[in-house]
Structures are given as structure tokens and as C-alpha cells.
Design a protein that fits this description.
alpha+beta, Ubiquitin-like (UB roll), five-stranded mixed sheet, two-stranded antiparallel sheet
Length: 99
């Protein structure tokens, strides 16, 4: 299975390598990452992050995530919800606060 790096920007957390595929929430909770999760369904905005792909592209947000992002981070084009993001490439992420 292909592995991808996650770099936690602006934190002391070490870079981790995770397998491609399932939502980040499935792995980041077990790794005790700086990202907190609430509803895990893409509506609360607790896991709002700013993501920069380190190689390749990320899939576009699905409809529910896109709606939540419009409310939580309307002007941030790099904003995503970690609970809805499938890992398809190495990324750097930074926890951000919603409006």
C-alpha cells in the first residue's frame, strides 16, 4: 500500500507516514495529532485545517464538506475538513480556526 507523509506545520508534532485511502480522522486520532475531531461527518468544523499538497493534487471536497467550508472558512481556498479528506498525496497541514 502506498504511503504518504503528513507534515504538521507550526507544531512540534513529528511528520508521520500514513497509508493512502481512508479519511485522515481514522489515523490522526490514533496518532494523537494536533487535529481535534467532533462530529466526524463534516458539519461541525472542529477539524478545520489548511492543507498544502506536497506532491500531486487532492480530491475536491464533496458537497457536504464544501458547504461547511463555505461557512467556516469562506475565503481560504486551502481549507479542508480532516474528517472528510482522503489521503491521496503527501501533505502539510495546519490547524485553523473557523470564523
Amino acid at each position: 500500500m502506498k504511503q504518504h507523509k503528513i507534515v504538521f506545520t507550526d507544531t512540534p508534532f513529528e511528520t508521520v507516514e500514513l497509508p493512502e485511502g481512508p479519511f485522515l480522522a481514522d489515523y490522526l486520532t490514533a496518532k494523537n495529532s494536533p487535529v481535534l475531531f467532533g462530529c466526524r461527518s463534516g458539519i461541525c468544523g472542529t477539524c478545520l485545517i489548511e492543507v498544502t499538497p506536497l506532491e500531486g493534487d487532492l480530491p475536491s471536497p464533496e458537497n457536504l464538506e464544501a458547504e461547511t467550508l463555505t461557512l467556516c472558512a469562506p475565503s481560504n481556498l486551502k481549507a479542508r475538513l480532516a474528517c472528510q479528506l482522503n489521503l491521496t498525496t503527501s501533505i502539510s497541514l495546519k490547524k485553523i480556526k473557523s470564523l
